[in-house]
Amino acid sequence: MNNIIEQMLKSYEIKNTNDEINALKEIIQEIVLSGLSRGKFFEKAAFYGGSALRIFFHLDRFSEDLDFALINPDSNFDLSTYFTYISKELEAYDLNLEITSKHKKNDTNIKSAFIKGNTLEHILKFFPNDENYEYTHLLKDIKIKFEIDINPPQGATFKDEYKLLPSPHLVKIYDQESLFAGKIHAILCRNWQTRTKGRDLYDYIFFLANNTKVNLKLLHNKLIASQYIEANKAFNINILKELLIEKFKIIDYQEAKEDIIPFIKDTNSLDMWNSKFFITITSKLKDI
Q: Whole-model pTM?
């Protein structure tokens, strides 16, 4: 096994196949970030979403996707320009993964790509001494999606962060207040009737527990862009709390729990999840 990957694996508590797969995916994510940094991607874009929260702010759950947004809108931005840098970085660590663009039928502001590869092949590279080869349905192909918003709502604030592994590199990320705005936008605008995302709720608790304030300007712009609210209507922290309370009344919390369980180690906290709990903690929400 590559010495750098071995070093990175030391930070994980591996008890089962699910832990192995989560560690594998996250290390691949960090290698991708390093490759993007070499290609000067972060001069134009910033990292946000659950994976940014996990990697840079120590969120105690795993995340599947890599989400980015341009700092300045650019309708001609070509994500594939950076595939070579990502491929070279992956190859440097002996990872056999393919990068492909996702072509959408409808023209949107979101450009997508996937990193794919054989899970068992890489599990055996990462864990060569593993004697448990009774692998299950978990071992479908590795698939890490990364997306970039080429025309994001304005109002985000950023910070530069340095990572030392797999090699020293810089990543521009949304600050915590802007990440919180993005998470609340997801809670309000996601179609919960077809996709109950317990991960959104888990992150919401994380932000409140860390006394994070919300970037209300960014959230307001995102909600307008999603046509969730009208631009000429009043919007403030109290109105936001009311919107969240109404959302928390209709969520299927059992489905939300089932969504988050594969990504966390301690599931005891989920016993508290119900509408009363989320409505009550929303009183703690503050803006900048």
A: 0.92
